[in-house]
């Protein structure tokens, strides 16, 4: 665990990286709204095993250290609805301005780690974390070479934000989050903006399909997520 200084305090964060004494490309990973927990540590650890330094910040740090709400071992049914009700005010308070200011601190901390190599990084995110990843990539184009968002509202900031996106992107959508028509509209906007991207609906999935501690988890979709994410990072990050 790390403590990252920000303009508003200190954000606690989890880091995973190969224990080989070498420097590796950096990845800033934004969790879903439920935050840092064993399922997220597993995702970060898996990615680190492929040769990356992965930093997962608690973006709700203004409300306390992670977890900011008490989490059950499995998030499903009524427990999920109750947790979302508790977290929604925190999500709504996490303004674009806060996201961008925090992202500068996160990216600076990532670059400063002795295990992280020089050069741009990638940003990944899940659920609301995918939106934070998009806002980070748009705000810091000189520092972010790749962005990936999964079951995330990546188009929520409108077409203008897409025109400021220079990183190569992959967006993996849940079937219950996006209709084929909406996917077509998003992809047309990405085309118009000149973004290098892949964007697709993962068949048979529901929102949250990457998260192993939820009812939404889909093991096949998680494998597909790795099949898309790892080549993206390999193409865009030095020594990836």
Task: Spell out the blueprint of helices and strands.
Elements: E1 2-6, E2 9-16, E3 26-30, H1 38-48, E4 53-57, H2 77-93, H3 96-112, E5 121-126, H4 128-139, E6 144-150, H5 159-162, E7 168-174, H6 180-193, E8 197-202, H7 219-236
Description:
The protein is of the alpha/beta class and 240 residues long. It is built from seven helices and eight strands, in the order E-E-E-H-E-H-H-E-H-E-H-E-H-E-H. The chain has an eight-stranded mixed beta sheet with strand order 1-2-4-3-5-6-7-8, sandwiched between helices. Helix 3 (96-112) crosses helix 4. It is globular.
Q: How helical, in percent, are the residues?
A: 25-40%
Tally of helical runs:
7
Task: Note the overall shape.
Answer: globular
Radius of gyration: 17 Å
- Trace the largest sheet across and list its strands: 1-2-4-3-5-6-7-8
Instruction: Tell me the major beta sheet.
Output: 8 strands, mixed
* Amino-to-carboxy terminus distance: 24 Å
Number of strands: 8
Question: What percentage of amino acids are in beta strands?
Answer: 15-25%
Round the mean pLDDT to the nearest integer and report it: 96
Briefly summarize what is shown.
The protein is an alpha/beta fold and 240 residues long.
Jot down its keywords.
about 240 residues; alpha/beta; 8-stranded mixed beta sheet
């Amino acid at each position: 665990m790390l403590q990252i200084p920000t303009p508003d305090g200190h954000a606690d964060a989890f880091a995973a990286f190969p224990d080989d004494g070498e420097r590796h490309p950096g990845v800033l990973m934004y969790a879903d709204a439920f935050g840092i927990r064993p399922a997220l540590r597993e995702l970060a650890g898996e990615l680190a095993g492929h040769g990356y330094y992965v930093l997962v910040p608690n973006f709700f740090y203004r409300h306390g250290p992670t977890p900011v709400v008490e989490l059950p071992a499995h998030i499903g049914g009524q427990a999920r609805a109750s947790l979302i009700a508790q977290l929604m005010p925190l999500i709504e308070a996490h303004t674009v301005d806060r996201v961008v200011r925090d992202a500068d601190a996160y990216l600076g901390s990532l670059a400063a780690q002795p295990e992280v190599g020089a050069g741009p990084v990638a940003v990944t995110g899940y659920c609301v974390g995918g939106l934070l990843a998009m806002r980070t990539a748009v705000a810091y184009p000189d520092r972010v070479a790749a962005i990936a968002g999964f079951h995330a509202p990546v188009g929520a900031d409108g077409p203008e934000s897409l025109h400021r996106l220079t990183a190569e992107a992959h967006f993996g959508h849940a079937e219950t989050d996006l209709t084929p028509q909406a996917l077509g509209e998003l992809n047309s906007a990405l085309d118009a903006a000149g973004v290098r991207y892949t964007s697709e609906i993962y068949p048979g999935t529901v929102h949250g399909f990457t998260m192993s501690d939820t009812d939404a988890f889909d093991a096949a979709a998680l494998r597909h997520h790795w099949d898309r994410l790892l080549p993206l990072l390999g193409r865009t990050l030095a020594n990836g």
